Amino acid sequence: MAAVESLVEKTALESPNPHDVTPLLDQTPVPSIHRMEEEGVAITWKNLEVTTDAGRPLLRNVNGIALPGMMTALMGASGAGKTTLLNTLLARNTKGLNIKGEILVNGQKIGKGVTEVSSYVQQEDIFVGTLTVGEHLYMQANMRLPNDWTAREKKERVDAVTRDMLLENSVGSRIGVPGVSKGISGGELKRLAFATEILADPPVLFADEPTTGLDSHMAMIVTKRMESLSGDQGKTIVCTIHQPASEIFELFDRILFLAGGRTAFFGTPPEAVSFFAKCGYGMADHTNPADHYIKQIAILPGYEEECKKKCTYICDRFAESALNKRMDDEMVEFSQKRPLEQINKVGWCTLFAMLAMRYGKDNLRKSSMIRAKLVQKVFMGLFIGLLYLQTNNRSQDGINNLKGVLFYFCSELTYSTIFAIQTYMPGDFPLLAREYHDGVYPVSAYMCAKIASYLMIFSIDGAVMITIAYWMVGLPSVGRFFLTLFICLLVEISAGSMGIAICSMAPSYAVAVSITGPLLTVLSLSGGLFTNVDAMPGWISWVQYISWFRYGYESLVVTQFVDPMYHSVPCNQTSCLNNGAEVIQSLHFSESNLHGNLFIMFVYSIIVYAMGYCALVWRVLASR
Ligand SMILES: Nc1ncnc2c1ncn2[C@@H]1O[C@H](COP(=O)(O)OP(=O)(O)OP(=O)(O)O)[C@@H](O)[C@H]1O
Question: Is the CB of 80 under 6 A from ligand 1?
Answer without folding.
Answer: yes
